Amino acid sequence: MGDTNKNVARMIYYALHALQHRGQEAAGICVHDGKSIHSYRGIGLVAEVFTETQIALLPGAVGIGHVRYPTSGAHTLENSQPILVKYRDKTIAVAHNGNLVNSGELRSELEGAGDIFSTTSDTEVIAHLLVKEIQRYDLADAVRAVMRRLVGSYSLAIMCNDTVIGLRDPLGIKPLCIGAIDDGIVVASESVAIDALNGRLIRDVAPGEMVVLRDGEMNCIRLVNSPRPAHCIFEYVYFARPDSIMDTKLIYDVRVNIGSILADEHPADADIVSPIPDSGITMAVGYHQRSGIRYKECLMKNRYVGRTFIMPDQSMREAAVRMKMNTIRPNIEGQRIVLVDDSIVRGTTSRRIVKMVKDAGAQKVHVRIGSPPIIAPCYLGIDMASRDELIAAHKTVAGVETVIDADSLGYVSLEGLIRAIGLPEDHFCTGCLTGIYPLDIPGERSMSSQRRLTDFPPNDGGG
Amino acid sequence: MGDTNKNVARMIYYALHALQHRGQEAAGICVHDGKSIHSYRGIGLVAEVFTETQIALLPGAVGIGHVRYPTSGAHTLENSQPILVKYRDKTIAVAHNGNLVNSGELRSELEGAGDIFSTTSDTEVIAHLLVKEIQRYDLADAVRAVMRRLVGSYSLAIMCNDTVIGLRDPLGIKPLCIGAIDDGIVVASESVAIDALNGRLIRDVAPGEMVVLRDGEMNCIRLVNSPRPAHCIFEYVYFARPDSIMDTKLIYDVRVNIGSILADEHPADADIVSPIPDSGITMAVGYHQRSGIRYKECLMKNRYVGRTFIMPDQSMREAAVRMKMNTIRPNIEGQRIVLVDDSIVRGTTSRRIVKMVKDAGAQKVHVRIGSPPIIAPCYLGIDMASRDELIAAHKTVAGVETVIDADSLGYVSLEGLIRAIGLPEDHFCTGCLTGIYPLDIPGERSMSSQRRLTDFPPNDGGG
Amino acid sequence: MGDTNKNVARMIYYALHALQHRGQEAAGICVHDGKSIHSYRGIGLVAEVFTETQIALLPGAVGIGHVRYPTSGAHTLENSQPILVKYRDKTIAVAHNGNLVNSGELRSELEGAGDIFSTTSDTEVIAHLLVKEIQRYDLADAVRAVMRRLVGSYSLAIMCNDTVIGLRDPLGIKPLCIGAIDDGIVVASESVAIDALNGRLIRDVAPGEMVVLRDGEMNCIRLVNSPRPAHCIFEYVYFARPDSIMDTKLIYDVRVNIGSILADEHPADADIVSPIPDSGITMAVGYHQRSGIRYKECLMKNRYVGRTFIMPDQSMREAAVRMKMNTIRPNIEGQRIVLVDDSIVRGTTSRRIVKMVKDAGAQKVHVRIGSPPIIAPCYLGIDMASRDELIAAHKTVAGVETVIDADSLGYVSLEGLIRAIGLPEDHFCTGCLTGIYPLDIPGERSMSSQRRLTDFPPNDGGG
Amino acid sequence: MGDTNKNVARMIYYALHALQHRGQEAAGICVHDGKSIHSYRGIGLVAEVFTETQIALLPGAVGIGHVRYPTSGAHTLENSQPILVKYRDKTIAVAHNGNLVNSGELRSELEGAGDIFSTTSDTEVIAHLLVKEIQRYDLADAVRAVMRRLVGSYSLAIMCNDTVIGLRDPLGIKPLCIGAIDDGIVVASESVAIDALNGRLIRDVAPGEMVVLRDGEMNCIRLVNSPRPAHCIFEYVYFARPDSIMDTKLIYDVRVNIGSILADEHPADADIVSPIPDSGITMAVGYHQRSGIRYKECLMKNRYVGRTFIMPDQSMREAAVRMKMNTIRPNIEGQRIVLVDDSIVRGTTSRRIVKMVKDAGAQKVHVRIGSPPIIAPCYLGIDMASRDELIAAHKTVAGVETVIDADSLGYVSLEGLIRAIGLPEDHFCTGCLTGIYPLDIPGERSMSSQRRLTDFPPNDGGG
């Protein structure tokens, strides 16, 4: 995120708040005040990490921010972002959404050349590569050189002294978009961050494109080309906010469409259709519209479960899910119910919810899922569980149905899902659903054709 | 809330968590361990106030808890509850939901008799009255004597040494219900607290009834009778959770019914119906079902706004509402939209939301409200604003329509609302909607007949 | 403490800070802004409880404050002071230094008359008595009436609406003094609080005297007379700061005198004299001066041990005392040492220190104590331990010498101590040293003559 | 600090606590549990940063710790220590006491070779050099190679995986010593850290010596030799604790000697000699012993001033020093007083104290200082102020006397100071007192002969 406004830390605070669903573990902001970089990071939600006092200690008209998604590693401050590195007269701050597949190799190679690291994060690897290339080349060539080395997903916000750069990987795996606000430009993971600043979405950052914000001006250059993009399909299913527009598609529409297609592919003889909140709500509305089955909520979520909530111990384990979600018993008793959710990962939560709904008196529980079965792990930025833990990696749909004790279980087809989104069918990363990845991942199958990166023809650049 | 389980503080913690929507200002728990009372209170949400350490310092098999609703006064710990008073060998803890109308008079009278207070709360007045009467009479007679003195709304949880008492005022203004859990009895404001403990709702506490929990046994006695109850009608419209059953009615059903009746009373020529989240969701579903107009969300709420969130300052005031709620622009552009909400208090928020939706490109915005106009203040426990601030106290519906800039505005009728609930029409307090109160309130009109309290015929008691 | 300055909370903060040694458990400030009372209390040191924000929320030109000494009871906020009680149009805040002997009786009697309490503290009893009498009499008569009822030690700061009152018990057990600052008057427990505000000590408050500060004016009235005072002798030995002047005597001088008299009464054949820091320092200087034995420190205190310090567990118990105090081994080896301390309570610490010093190579350790043996508990405000725990209550001096493993042990005589102070011999409470108390204490012996209180002749009052 | 005990984090905690006077800004501990390094750092005192929980999260039998002295830079967590760097299979943690003179050059050079940094601290420069050399050489040669590059003062605790290294710079500028505890070896800045663990001081680490602790064994190797050491003379005057033994000398004795020599060099016709607490106490005792002038304290320090203390604002500036120190007026009135302090830096505090003592009625105030005038800045680890701020850099003794308004002013001579310490006269760094430094410092004069470092003859090593 970058902007030429004076009180940019405050604006980044609001933008990060709008993106809070993308990471709740840690938050950080770096700004540049014309002379030097100021930075503050902490463990927790944006609103927990930053106080008025902290914001006031971050003067500057340009800056970047980050919310950290809890992937691997402990909750340590050291791995929080933006990561800062210093080199000669330059301080470079990097905020990274995504995951590198070859960070181990790159790190080894950099260490072979003598590089020393302060953290275990792949973001520091990117920062080191960048610092090196910037010594040799102009900015565009330096970034292009770095991109040639990186294998993985990476939407990046970089601040190099007072220049802010937005960068999207050549496959466009993770989202990134550009917006205009009153007196500046914003680059953000989702358009809701632009909305929060009362701005206007200009367009998505293209795969392989770099957006440079300097002295109040924006320059966009496509650096690297790939035969076709590989957008993470799970952003549409689950990760993004419904009110975001991502690669031209409104997530809300996509999810209504998914529900509608689910109703076609997996009809049910039922009295009501009910979402598992919050993720299943929009899909359930779509299912209801298409099927004509009455929409009625069976489960109510408690809005107040926070970080410090004391979860029930052994003696009350049954109650654990109840702290987060309650059944509306009279809506359930004697009913044949279609329960709609976005996905099944381990199956544990689905099983508990089906049990809760049956305990509340449901006659039948038909589970409908807005994604195909997840059969393989994600290496590109979504913390989905290992292959061992993924229930659909080891069981047929019938097997999963038995485990979660549903009267019927239907997953949307991959074709249906892609149709719901409305982008070309070969424009996605569907690794978790097919086991075939758009990048070479050791031990996994890849669409080897996809990663033939070429430099972008120079005449395509520009702002 | 009372229970005979060993780890009762932990259970009260979960129950309070389920009731968190009833008050976010402060939370407190008192327990009795067979010898003495232990108490802890703090400012903030239940999950913020209590840690494992605090819970561990509250040993005991019986107890009561409270979440404080921010009415008047500063956020001081002194006014948090349960309030404790000590008298000879007795320690009495009182948790109060509601508001006394005559607390000033009672306080003066008690002061006339020499009573000295530590707080400004009306709960301390109740505690003093109770202590006095308990010296003279047995428990039932003492509580009856206190009830004769109190004018106002009061659902009370009282702990007198190791006896826990639940008490509901003679008009049953505020809710109170009884549930059975594995090894004990719970009395709580809403049935969701019983659900959280995996318990079973037994029934509502009757107006004027006292529930005594002692040595693992429950005794119920109706102490005072009133010609008819006066349940707060706003609990159904707004305050209670949709998954609660209150005075035999499921709130979810009531709100669907309200939406349905709204559709009949105020149809609209529109493309979509959308709730103002969260309060309008269930009513919007009802409107959609009855009208056949497509259900589509136009507004998305940010789930992460917390206590410490830094709100935009003057220069970004427009953005304030945007931090909490975002428009889904593509769902809005060119559409004729029915926006459903539960109520309009000052009109400020409604005006801002209508503006946001119009700015996002709506062709028409028809506002539909699930309650009649609020024309008078609440003296009985809901912090609704003063008469001056209430927009409908000074303007006709057409006037409000103009102020909020809606293309049309329709409120459900009082008759429609009562029909949606399904209880007899004279069983409600409708003070805020009619200006006529079930109790004598200085300067206001009252249904004088209602408050002719009589002692309940002794043969009606029992457990 | 009272003052007519605008920013009085800030000044009280500094005064409390100077009095921090009198109580580290909790701190509180109440101020009056001309309209109402504002109050804030918290657990911890003054500097921990109050921030700039808290001070800013306490506007007012008059006020009182308190630091709480950890006597009995848990570290609960409820027992922190000033205690506030409300009665009709009056709010009365009371801060109390001392201990009532008859608070149980008074409480029962007040309860008999219907009084209800919020805490278990004797200060609330005083507040209740005061509220009652103020209804009936003018201020002087009301306070006199209260004093007739109280048996015990009590220096009080009272704020009744915007009037501040300082009051000292008829025996003057606890200290209280008056000072002038730039634009106001201060009443405080020790003169160092006046020094902290750059003020000038005017005089001690006389036993039985009331100081009234109102509208910038001071009025002093002696309300109750006693044949002679009974100043707590332990204030001189241990409790007060050396730089305070108390009942006309500089504590520093008193302690040098004690050391000097100790040297006469218990000379030693030694190479060096060393204090046990910090309490023994001034006495050791006196011993050195009188005896001519070289002053050399053998023990060094760590200044940084704070509230949250993690003390060694079982496996390192020996180290516990080492965390607070270190031996200076080269100053000790082969030396015959006089170790000077102010008192021995349980004997445990003395034993550990003698062992440490011997382990560090001392040839002889002669212990000299600046008070006579403590043979009886204190009922009047110093938390000294129960009779069971007091080593000198059960052992002769020779017995104590054996337990602490000193080569010789000498206590100053009571006569010597009184001579060191320089006030008449019958002007002290020496309960802990003699077992004879100036007040009737059930089960203890008393100087029954002393408590024949009479009203002070009216012509003695005035300011 | 290193040790083979199981609960080493806890022991490091106690050792750091004993060294708290060496740095109050931040504290950190790193331990190795046989597999990996665990680390925790925070802003504040040791007792504020670490809780039982934090200690429990630091398992391991070896470790190092650090307390940070507030030199330049903001109070940022990033500059706190130990600093961690990661390189291939090694994690290296470095804790540094001292200051590099050539860190800018080294940093540039490393950057020239491509090194990238995460902080602005010179400790990270040391860590990088070390990582590089360790790839090429065995440990002793690697460390020797690093030492050849470093110009400045550095006592280092290094942990390279599970090997702990203590290292003292070739001039021995900063202290470092070795101690034996029950089941292990400790290397620490001062012997009081060994005392805290009930250990026994073995000896000082020699200048240029490396101590290696691995698998419970200690190996000592002198790596680099210098013609003579250059111990920081200010450690003796002010910085070290009186109970430490440093380079074989007990600090307490040194300070008594200083006082004694001061009395010879600058006698005074006075009634009493009084320290400025705490730093002047031991010197004042020495002055008293030699001069025969009575020892009597005139100033009393408040022990409770902490980090969060609210200092007086403009309107009370006079009071600022009063918050920390109070005059004992009766000890001062009419007296001719010798005030003894360790040093004068800016003169501001001395002036305020002299004024306070005169305001309290002193007839004469003779100031005696236990160090020669500070005429030049320290580049080697003590935050003394810039040359501009140093009062004695610009004024004669008579000039300083006038500024601080003393009746006479006497500094101990450099010869006297060195005699008081008792080490050879050319074994010190006296840069701040003479302007001549033992190292080449750009723009300053140096004892150029001193820094002719040679490798230590190999037969001198050993343990």
Automatic annotation (TrEMBL), chains A, B, C, D:
Q: Which residues bind [4Fe-4S] cluster?
A: 232, 378, 429, 432
One Pfam match: Pribosyltran
> Keywords on this record?
4Fe-4S, Glutamine amidotransferase, Glycosyltransferase, Iron, Iron-sulfur, Magnesium, Metal-binding, Purine biosynthesis, Transferase
Reaction(s) the record says it catalyses: 5-phospho-beta-D-ribosylamine + L-glutamate + diphosphate = 5-phospho-alpha-D-ribose 1-diphosphate + L-glutamine + H2O
Q: In which pathway does it act?
A: Purine metabolism; IMP biosynthesis via de novo pathway; N(1)-(5-phospho-D-ribosyl)glycinamide from 5-phospho-alpha-D-ribose 1-diphosphate: step 1/2
CDD domains in UniProt: GPATase_N (cd00715), PRTases_typeI (cd06223)
**EC number(s) stated in the UniProt entry for this protein:** 2.4.2.14
Question: GO terms for biological process?
Answer: 'de novo' IMP biosynthetic process; purine nucleobase biosynthetic process
According to the record, cofactor stoichiometry and binding are noted as: Binds 1 [4Fe-4S] cluster per subunit.
Residues in Glutamine amidotransferase type-2 domain copies = 1-216
Transmembrane region positions? Answer: none
Q: Which domain of life is it from?
A: Archaea
Q: Which cofactor does it need?
A: [4Fe-4S] cluster; Mg(2+)
Q: Which InterPro entries match?
A: GATase_2_dom, Ntn_hydrolases_N, PRTase-like, PRTase_dom, PurF, PurF_N
User: What does the record give under GO molecular function?
Assistant: 4 iron, 4 sulfur cluster binding; amidophosphoribosyltransferase activity; magnesium ion binding
Residues that bind Mg(2+):
279, 341-342
Annotated family: In the C-terminal section; belongs to the purine/pyrimidine phosphoribosyltransferase family.
Q: What does this protein do?
A: Catalyzes the formation of phosphoribosylamine from phosphoribosylpyrophosphate (PRPP) and glutamine.
What protein name does the entry list? Amidophosphoribosyltransferase
Q: Which organism is it from?
A: Methanothrix thermoacetophila (strain DSM 6194 / JCM 14653 / NBRC 101360 / PT) (Methanosaeta thermophila)
